[in-house]
Design goal:
The chain folds into 2 domains: 144 residues, Serine Threonine Protein Phosphatase 5, Tetratricopeptide repeat; 245 residues, no CATH class. The longest helix has 24 residues. A 7-stranded mixed β-sheet has the order 4-3-2-9-11-13-12. It has a two-stranded parallel ribbon with strand order 1-10. A two-stranded antiparallel ribbon has the order 5-6. Helix 4 packs antiparallel against helix 5 and helix 5 packs parallel to helix 7. With 419 residues, it is of the alpha+beta class.
Length: 419
C-alpha cells in the first residue's frame, strides 16, 4: 500500500505541474483553488483508507462546486477532477468492484486523463486489468498518452529539406543594452573565473535562485531581462518558463556566449494539450557543441559518462533508448526534486516532439511593438501530421508581425553559430 500511496502523490504532482504550472490558462477563482487543494487531500485520505462512502460524498461536494465554475476556470482546475475520478477508480478496484472501477476510469479518461504508462503499471488497477472493458478503454490512449511511444515513432527527419530558411543570428556582447545588463547585474562576478561550462552553469543556478517559476501568470509586457527581473522584485512574483529562458538567454549573450531559447512542443494530435516548455541551448566553444540548459528545473543533461548533451542529443537518446542522466540537484522552485524518469521520459518526451526557435537571439526579442517583425523556425519530424504551410505569417493586435518557417532539416535548425 505504501508504494501505491507514493505513486498517487507523484502522479498527481506531475499532472498538476504539467497542466497548471506550464499552461497558458490562468485561474480567476482563487477561493476554489484553495478548496480544491484541501479537498484533494481529503480524497487521497479516503482512497488510502479504501473508504468508498467517504470518497463518494467528497467527490459529490467537489463536483457540485466544480460545475458552478466558469468554463475557463474549469479548464484550469480539471486536473483535480481527473485525479479525483482516477483515484476513485483505484479505490473501487482495490475493493473488488470491477464495474464501478471501470466506470470511474472511463470518467477520468473522458475528463482528460492520458497517462498510458502510469495506467499500465498502476497495481491498484490489477483487479480490472484483464477485463475487456479496461483493455478497450486504454488502447486508444497509447497514441496520445504514451509519450515515449509517440516520440520513438518520430525520430526521422530529412536533412535534404531545402525549403528557404533565414539564418540564425546572435547579438554581440558589445550591444549597449546587453553591456548595461552585464554591468548592472554584476554577471562577471556571478559567472566566475572558471571555464566556459562553469560560467554557463553558474548563471543557470543564479537565475533559478533569483526568480521563481510561476506558470499561472503571463510574463510582463516588456520582455527583457532587466525589466522582468525588476518587475519580479517589485511585485514579488515569478516568471513562466519562457520568461526564465528569455532572461537567461540575454545574460548569456551579454557575456559573449551564443545561446537561443527553444520552445519544446508536443505532438498534440487531439488539439487539447496547451502545454509546452521553454529551455535554453547554449553553445560551448571548447566542446564545439550546444548543451541543454533548463532554468525552470535548474537542469542539464548528461550521457552515462558525464558528457554534457544538447537538446538534439537528448531527443536522439530518448528515441534510441540510450542512457541519460540529469544533475542530481535539479528541482522545481526548491520544493520538488526532479527525477530523470519524470523529467525526461515523461514530461520532456512529450514536449520534444516539435521544436521552435526565434531566428534572432537578441535583447528584448519578444517585446511587442508596432512594426516589429519576429521570425521563428520550427523543426518538425517527418511523422508529424501537419507539415504545411512552409511559411506562416500573422499580425498581432499590437502591430507586431510574426513569420514562422517549417522545416524537417535538423542540420539547419541545430546549426552552430558562425564565429
Amino acid at each position: 500500500m505504501e508504494k501505491n500511496k507514493t505513486m498517487k502523490k507523484r502522479s498527481f504532482t506531475l499532472l498538476l505541474i504539467m497542466f497548471t504550472l506550464f499552461s497558458a490558462a490562468k485561474a480567476t477563482d482563487k477561493g476554489f483553488e484553495d478548496y480544491a487543494k484541501h479537498q484533494q487531500g481529503l480524497l487521497v485520505s479516503a482512497y488510502e483508507k479504501r473508504d468508498v462512502n467517504a470518497y463518494s460524498k467528497l467527490l459529490d461536494d467537489f463536483l457540485d462546486k466544480y460545475n458552478r465554475l466558469a468554463p475557463a476556470d474549469q479548464k484550469v482546475y480539471v486536473p483535480y477532477l481527473i485525479d479525483a475520478y482516477y483515484n476513485f477508480s483505484c479505490t473501487w478496484s482495490l475493493n473488488g468492484n470491477k464495474a464501478m472501477a471501470i466506470n470511474y476510469l472511463e470518467k477520468a479518461i473522458k475528463a482528460g486523463y492520458m497517462d498510458y504508462s502510469h495506467i499500465s503499471e498502476d497495481s491498484d488497477l490489477d483487479n480490472i486489468r484483464n477485463e475487456a472493458a479496461f483493455v478497450s478503454l486504454i488502447k486508444p490512449l497509447r497514441g496520445v498518452g504514451d509519450y515515449l511511444y509517440i516520440i520513438q515513432k518520430a525520430g526521422a527527419y530529412n536533412s535534404a529539406d531545402n525549403r528557404p530558411l533565414p539564418a540564425f543570428t546572435y547579438q554581440g556582447a558589445e550591444n549597449p543594452d546587453l553591456a548595461i545588463l552585464r554591468k548592472t547585474l554584476h554577471l562577471d562576478s556571478i559567472a566566475g573565473t572558471g571555464n566556459e561550462v562553469s560560467k554557463v552553469i553558474n548563471l543557470l543556478y543564479w537565475i533559478h535562485n533569483l526568480v521563481p517559476h510561476d506558470g499561472n501568470h503571463e510574463n510582463p509586457t516588456v520582455k527583457n531581462a532587466l525589466s522582468m527581473i525588476n518587475q519580479c522584485k517589485k511585485e514579488n512574483r515569478g516568471l513562466n518558463c519562457r520568461g526564465l529562458a528569455t532572461v537567461l538567454n540575454e545574460c548569456y549573450l551579454s557575456m559573449g556566449i551564443k545561446s537561443r531559447f527553444v520552445t519544446c512542443l508536443p505532438k498534440d494530435s487531439l488539439h487539447i494539450d496547451n502545454d509546452c516548455h521553454v529551455i535554453n541551448m547554449v553553445y560551448i566553444n571548447s566542446l564545439k557543441k550546444w548543451i541543454w540548459i533548463d532554468p525552470t528545473f535548474c537542469a542539464y543533461v548528461m550521457d552515462d559518462k558525464g558528457g554534457l548533451l544538447s537538446i538534439e542529443e537528448v531527443r536522439e537518446r530518448i528515441v534510441d533508448n540510450k542512457p541519460l542522466i540529469i544533475n542530481p540537484d535539479a528541482n522545481w522552485n526548491h520544493k520538488n526534486s526532479e527525477t530523470k524518469d519524470a523529467y525526461l521520459y515523461h514530461y520532456m518526451a512529450k514536449n520534444l516532439y516539435r521544436l521552435e526557435c526565434g531566428v534572432s537571439s537578441e535583447y528584448d526579442a519578444e517585446t511587442r511593438s508596432p512594426g516589429k517583425v519576429v521570425k521563428y523556425v520550427v523543426l518538425l519530424p517527418l511523422e508529424y501530421f501537419k507539415q504545411k504551410p512552409d511559411k506562416i505569417e500573422s499580425l498581432n493586435p499590437t502591430g507586431t508581425s510574426y513569420i514562422t518557417y517549417n522545416t524537417n532539416n535538423p542540420d539547419a535548425f541545430w546549426a552552430a553559430p558562425e564565429k
